[in-house]
Amino acid sequence: MQTRVVFNQKGGVGKSSITVNLAALSAQHGLKTLIIDLDPQANSSQYVLGEEAVITASQGVLEPNIENYFQDVLGVKEQKGLIGNALGSLLKTRSKGLESYIHHTRFKFLDVLPASPHLGALEHALESKHKIYKLRDAIQPLAAVYDRIYIDTPPAFNFYTLSALIAADRVLIPFDCDVFSRRALQTLLENILETQDDHNDRLEVEGIIVNQFQAQAKLPREVVAALKADQLPVFDAMLPPSIMMKESHQKNLPLVYLAPDHKLTQAYLALFQEIEKGRG
Fold first, then answer.
1. Is the separation of the CB atoms in 27 and 110 below 8 Å?
2. What is the pTM of this model?
3. Which 3 state secondary structure label does DSSP give 234?
4. Closest by alpha carbon to 13, among 209, 205, 199, 168?
5. 263, 150, 255: which is closest to 215 by C-alpha?
6. Which of 57, 72, 121, 228 is the most buried (most CB within 10 A)?
7. R_g of the chain, CA atoms, integer Å
8. Domains plus CATH for the chain?
């Protein structure tokens, strides 16, 4: 099993789109694949589950989800029925593995552990009770079930992002070709290295995914050249801008299922193959 976290502290760089489309390609290639959505915006969850994961006036948060898992880790959900005491509640919830919170999607070999917009309310309690290794420990038994896990993260370096980095083998960094993204990259890499030193010595930066790359424009070419000059691991396959991505979101269909021959889909395929080929 290979676990990858898609991480950038800057928002709007395509984390969820990259997470879902690489996971979909993984599944399409016959690899049993799980998406874990740790972003309270739940974009990855909605992308693959559609209306089922959308909160409306008549429909609440989809459950079970990753919030429920962390609630059970804390023992804050009281069990109703015959087991009413706190000890019984803790024993019952601790016996549940992460697989109890996972949803199947309509796509073969692709599952998702959905996010919740209420994750922020649990963060302080999780930090204060030192639950930072719980996600890693819960993921390890899934090696018997899944070949690949992709973790989508919030645009911040917080408890959930750190949990993902501790649980992962590799980091994929989405990157928009602008000056602000390049300036933020140094801080991001420092946070990854600190996590590697303090919590997860097997963690590797697998590569930087250049998104919204306009090959004909001068600035994007210069930014990419600067990254390579700094000897940063930039993937050769770069993702061009396309209205097709918005259509993919709207129809809740990853690109490989919506438009397999489209140039953006083919760019994702090249990226996926480059990632898989680079595995040690």
1. yes
2. 0.91
3. strand
4. 209
5. 263
6. 72
7. 19
8. 2-277 (3.40.50.300)
Pairs from 226-235 (Cβ < 8 Å, separation ≥ 24): 226/182, 227/175, 227/182, 227/185, 232/185, 232/208, 233/205, 233/206, 233/207, 233/208, 234/207, 234/208, 234/210, 235/207, 235/208, 235/209, 235/210, 235/271, 235/274, 235/275
pLDDT tens track of the chain, all 280 residues? Answer: 999 999 998 888 899 999 999 999 999 999 999 999 999 999 999 999 998 888 777 788 899 999 999 999 998 654 444 444 555 554 444 547 999 999 999 999 999 999 999 999 999 999 999 999 999 999 999 999 999 999 999 999 999 999 999 999 999 999 987 766 777 888 999 999 999 999 999 999 999 999 999 988 888 899 999 999 999 999 999 999 999 999 999 999 999 999 999 999 999 999 999 999 974 4
Residue 84, pLDDT score:
46
Q: How far, in Å, CA of 185 to CA of 87, rounded?
A: 46
CA distance 29 to 2: 15
- Count the neighbouring beta carbons within 10 Å of the beta carbon of residue 141: 11
Q: 10 Å Cβ neighbour count for 235?
A: 19
How many Å apart are CA 66 and CA 111, to the nearest integer? 13
Name the one residue in this structure whose structure tokens are 């083919």. Answer: 266
Chain centroid to CA 239:
18
What is the C-alpha separation between 199 and 126, in angstroms, rounded?
A: 17
Q: Are strands 110-113 and 148-152 parallel, antiparallel or unpaired?
A: unpaired
- Compute the distance between CA of residue 155 and CA of residue 164 in angstroms, rounded to an integer: 13
Q: What sign for the dihedral angle of Cα 84, 89, 91, 96?
A: positive
Q: Are 45 and 53 in contact (CB under 8 A)?
A: yes
Q: What is the token pair recorded at 21?
A: 């489309």
Closest CA to 24 of 261, 274, 254: 254
